[in-house]
Amino acid sequence: MSNKYTSLQIGIHWLVFLLVIVTYCAMELRGFAPRSYRPWINMVHVSCGMTILVLMVTRLLVRLKYPAPPIVPKPKPMVTGMAHLGHLVIYLLFIVLPIIGLVMMYNRGNPWVAFGLVMPHASDANFEVVDMLKTWHITLAKLGYFVIGLHAAAALMHHYVWKDNTLLRMMPRKRS
């Protein structure tokens, strides 16, 4: 067994990381852009969210096929349990969050765009559902900041405090 994740797993991990940054920035910084840019910014947000969904499901399926490489030295069982819980939360968050967003966009009842293409929408808007989903989407997105921060802090703890190979397992391979 290798001491690193597969190149596919590493690539998906860092691509999702970049897409999450773009997705969050699109919403957080849209107020600084002229109003005429809003449709483009929304398209970037939705397109990145859809891509994150596909990549996270793919990553989960790949993860089921290729087990995690061992952590050396082996951490305490409580640390391992917390890591499993953290990864479960990350997978759930970045699968559920885009699904909620897509269902919300569909139920608005008007055309919306992803990847430059007009997406299907409900013939009649259901604003009660849209408002409820928007609340959940925003709440979970804010939770995402906390989860991402904990994930990064844990990786750094593993590397600098516990001095194991956790962080190194997910770093891209060096070219030979």
TrEMBL record:
<dbReference type="GO" id="GO:0046872">
    <property type="term" value="F:metal ion binding"/>
</dbReference>
<dbReference type="InterPro" id="IPR016174">
    <property type="entry name" value="Di-haem_cyt_TM"/>
</dbReference>
<keyword id="KW-0349">Heme</keyword>
<keyword id="KW-1133">Transmembrane helix</keyword>
<keyword id="KW-0479">Metal-binding</keyword>
<keyword id="KW-1003">Cell membrane</keyword>
<keyword id="KW-0249">Electron transport</keyword>
<dbReference type="GO" id="GO:0009055">
    <property type="term" value="F:electron transfer activity"/>
</dbReference>
<protein>
    <recommendedName>
        <fullName>Cytochrome b561 bacterial/Ni-hydrogenase domain-containing protein</fullName>
    </recommendedName>
</protein>
<dbReference type="InterPro" id="IPR052168">
    <property type="entry name" value="Cytochrome_b561_oxidase"/>
</dbReference>
<keyword id="KW-0813">Transport</keyword>
<keyword id="KW-0812">Transmembrane</keyword>
<dbReference type="InterPro" id="IPR011577">
    <property type="entry name" value="Cyt_b561_bac/Ni-Hgenase"/>
</dbReference>
<feature type="transmembrane region" description="Helical">
    <location>
        <begin position="143"/>
        <end position="162"/>
    </location>
</feature>
<feature type="domain" description="Cytochrome b561 bacterial/Ni-hydrogenase">
    <location>
        <begin position="5"/>
        <end position="172"/>
    </location>
</feature>
<dbReference type="Pfam" id="PF01292">
    <property type="entry name" value="Ni_hydr_CYTB"/>
</dbReference>
<feature type="transmembrane region" description="Helical">
    <location>
        <begin position="12"/>
        <end position="33"/>
    </location>
</feature>
<keyword id="KW-0408">Iron</keyword>
<keyword id="KW-0472">Membrane</keyword>
<dbReference type="GO" id="GO:0022904">
    <property type="term" value="P:respiratory electron transport chain"/>
</dbReference>
<feature type="transmembrane region" description="Helical">
    <location>
        <begin position="83"/>
        <end position="106"/>
    </location>
</feature>
<feature type="transmembrane region" description="Helical">
    <location>
        <begin position="39"/>
        <end position="62"/>
    </location>
</feature>
<dbReference type="GO" id="GO:0020037">
    <property type="term" value="F:heme binding"/>
</dbReference>
<dbReference type="GO" id="GO:0005886">
    <property type="term" value="C:plasma membrane"/>
</dbReference>
<comment type="similarity">
    <text>Belongs to the cytochrome b561 family.</text>
</comment>
